[in-house]
Amino acid sequence: MSEHKIIDACNTYCPGPLMELITYMKQANVGDVLELLSTDKGTASDVPEWVNKIGHEMVSSEIIDDIWHIKVRKAK
Amino acid sequence: MRILIVGGGTGGTIVANNLARRLTPEIRAREVKITMLSASDKHMYQPGLLYVAFGQMMPDELYRDQATLLETSVDFHVDPVIKFNLDRKQVETKSGRTYSYDVLVIATGSREMPKKIPGLDEGSDSFYTEDGAVKLFKKLREFKGGKVGIVVGVPHKCPIAPVEFTYALHDYFTARGIRDKVEIKYHYPINRIHSIENVAKWAEPEFERMGIECETLFNVEEVDAENKIVKSMEGSEYQYDLLVSIPEHHGMEVIESNEMGQDGWIPTDRHQLTMEGYDDVYVVGDTTNLPVSKTGSAAHFEAEVISENIASIIKIGTPVSEYDGKVYCFIEAGRDKATYAMFDYQNPPDLKSANKAMHWFKMSYNKMYWSSVRGLL
């Protein structure tokens, strides 16, 4: 059964939100959805660029109370 | 009150010494006992490995006897923990002993995992171990020219090391007079050349000036060691003559085998630095799953918060401090310049220009570390 995991990368600069997502993506199983929380506005463009290049699936991206919530499904 | 510290690296040692000083009256009155269990009788200054890889430090300069770094009131044993019984407040060690505690500090650190990537161990060199750094230096010394690739695993200890190594590599080959015969190509996992945006903005023009090629969004999938080709998950590849890898890291095997955190990273409260679900268990340094740099600097600042809080809980019954995410990292920018990055949860790093004075400060700190870890700085 696939899981939904939340990664809190708010207010972090190094290694930063995308590095956190890559770390947890390695631990996840195919089909799992990872929800990345980030206060870094660059994350909204950085994550889709990596996800599209590597072949995972963007589920959604929205900003709620100044926090980006970006959901990605592991596809391979 | 029995305080047990598991791990004798930067974080564990600073916690032990800081607590020993704060709790001197309680220790003398036999109300508090501090015990440290470590896997080694030696303490390594890990940032020195970068210099070993370029022949600028000898390996023996990186070590001190752990016992000489600790306050005499700390009961130190070389006896690694193999089993954590957190609900019974006990650990079991390799020698077969059981230690009970009232407060536990886990400072077991991290380890490089080159075998996670097929072919990486056979096909690349790394300066993250003593043997690796020495072997790499010998290869660099004999290198006559060709293509040098640098690849970076996620997550890894010391996030600034890939940039520092690349600067140093350029300067090393320049000094040997063969820079024009060497292609240096730097590969990085995300879509800029360093995770810190200000570092990336600073390093990009420097890399361009040095003629260092860059490819971003490059996460290593496998290495064909026989044909010397490194391939990325994103679908590109690079043929090399020498491949230098900063390997993916995990927490220590004992954390994984005790199922205390995936890949050996313990879920930790980002302010109190307690293990999730256990108010009597603190986690320091690389061992945490916190989204902060895995560096001695982060371990140092975390260790101060943990020591302050354990001591205040003993003295007045409540913690007094919170970790604010503070990290201070020197950044070597070649053989004679350096800068630094300082940041916390609320303030991004504001990078200054690299200069000679900061480089010499860093060179001094390489010696001052031993005072720092003793808790004197």
User: What would the average pLDDT of chain A be, to the nearest integer?
Assistant: 94
Spatial strand arrangement across the major sheet of chain B: 5-2-1-9-20-19
Count of DSSP helices of chain B? 11
| Count of the domains of chain A | 1
- Based on CA atoms alone, the radius of gyration of chain A comes out at 11 Å
Q: Output mean pLDDT of chain B.
A: 97
Q: What share of residues are in beta strands of chain A?
A: 25-35%
Tally of individual domains of chain B:
2
User: Gap between N and C termini of chain A, in Å?
Assistant: 15 Å
Largest interface, with Cβ-Cβ < 8 Å? Answer: A-B, 22 and 28 residues
- Report the CATH topology name of chain A: Translation Initiation Factor IF3
Number of helices of chain A: 2
Task: Note the run of SSEs of chain A as H and E.
Answer: EHEHEE
CATH superfamily of chain A: TusA-like domain
What is the share of helical residues of chain A? 25-40%
| Strands of chain B, count | 22
3D shape of chain A = globular
Q: Which term fits the overall shape of chain B?
A: globular
Task: Characterise the protein shown here.
The complex is a heterodimer of chains A (76) and B (377). Chain A is of the alpha+beta class and 76 residues long. In chain A, 30% of the residues lie in helices and 34% in strands. In chain A, helix 1 links the parallel strand 1 (4-8) and strand 2. Chain A is globular. The model of chain A has no long low-confidence stretch (mean pLDDT 94). Chain B has 377 residues and is an alpha/beta fold. Chain B has helices at residues 10-22, 24-28, 49-52, 66-69, 120-123, 130-142, 161-176, 197-210, 253-257, 296-316, 356-373; strands at residues 2-6, 33-38, 42-44, 63-65, 75-78, 81-85, 90-93, 98-100, 103-106, 110-112, 146-152, 182-187, 213-215, 220-224, 229-232, 237-239, 242-246, 249-251, 274-275, 278-283, 327-332, 338-343. In chain B, a hairpin with a 5-residue loop joins strand 21 (327-332) and strand 22. In chain B, helix 1 (10-22) runs parallel beside helix 10 (296-316). At the A-B interface, helix 1 and helix 2 of A face loops of B.
